Amino acid sequence: MHRSLPALAWLRTFEASARLLSFTAAADELALTPSSVSQHVRLLEDWLGEALFQRLHGGLLLTDAGAALLPRVTGALDMLETGVGDLFHSQRPRLTVRFPASLATMWLAPRLHQFQRAHPEVSLRISTGVWPTDSESITSELEVRHGLGNWAGYNSERLTHDVMIPMVAPSLYEEGADGDAADLLRQHQLLHVMGYERGWSDWMESHYGSRLRELRTLPLDSEMVAATIAESGQGVTLGRLPQFQRLIDSGRLITPLGSSLTVEEGLFLLTHAGHTLSREAKLFRDWLMASFEEEMSRYR
């Protein structure tokens, strides 16, 4: 039976590029050249007759068509991977670890090769989502969640305290360089990521008291979207470290206001209460704890 489908290689390349919002990072993950990644994406766009990305200076932004396609391609690739694995690699235990999507994209993806290089014998499955759901959490031996550490039925180990700091694109700051920090916040919309206990109001109170009121905000449910909008110069995001550190290190976002606020909210590693961890889970836990300990030492 003939199937009217684009090449699997194009779909894999699109999924990696959309997840990482970078052709270069996708090329590293897929062991391709950046030009090959770009070609695969263009061939897929030609096949679909739709643009999937906006090519921006210093990064990518998904179009509406790309954002709609991504979860379907991800789901299809997950099903294919699971099906092949169940048939041919069932003798190898697969460790499932769940991460918030933003953390997996901005923090885990650039570092995962370190664990895989140290422990090539461990077969991993990384599950992601914006906010946790019970059904997906049940199937994960390890899970990283954001909050205060108190979830019924789980043991939790703290990985971070959130360090919140305003971030903007360099071009946005240069436009208003003559004004003070408060002017920057008055002139541009504040990108507010929903679902957190602490946010812009806490940062404002800490640094300006009651001097700044009724500023324009754009509510969003994803740190990745907030980061992308900020990179394109369309607002100020309250980035959380260490998740946003890579964007600062690369110069894609800057912190001209300088002042951060550390809060009790943070990332925690969860394990099911009463569950004895597998050897693979212990190895990944130890690597994750050490990695975050090293990362958080930068902010002390």
Compile the SSE list and pairings.
Elements lengths: L7 H13 L2 H8 L3 H15 L4 E4 L2 E4 L1 H25 L5 E7 H8 L3 H7 L4 E7 L4 H5 L3 E6 L6 E5 L4 E5 L2 H6 L5 H7 L2 E4 L6 H9 L8 E4 L2 H9 L4 E6 L3 H5 L11 E2 L3 E7 L6 H18 L4
Parallel strand pairs: 3-4, 3-5, 8-9, 8-10
Antiparallel strand pairs: 1-2, 5-12, 6-12, 7-10, 7-11
Helix pairs in contact: 1-2, 1-3, 1-4, 2-3
CATH second-level architecture of the largest domain: 3-Layer(aba) Sandwich
Dominant shape: globular
CATH class of the largest domain: Alpha Beta
Question: Quick one: biggest sheet?
Answer: 5 strands, mixed
Name given to the CATH homologous superfamily of the largest domain:
Periplasmic binding protein-like II
Distance between the termini: 61 Å
**Total strands:** 12
Give the strand order of the largest sheet, numbering strands 1, 2, ... along the chain: 4-3-5-12-6
Total count of domains: 3
Number of helices: 13
The averaged pLDDT comes out at 87
Q: Structural class, please?
A: alpha/beta
Strand portion: 15-25%
Please give the radius of gyration in angstroms. Answer: 20 Å
Order of helices and strands: HHHEEHEHHEHEEEHHEHEHEHEEH
Q: pLDDT under 50 segments (min length 5)?
A: none
Query: CATH topology of the largest domain, anyone?
Result: D-Maltodextrin-Binding Protein, domain 2
Short note summarizing the structure:
With 300 residues, the chain is of the alpha/beta class. 45% of the residues lie in helices and 20% in strands. β1 and β2 (59-62) form a beta hairpin.
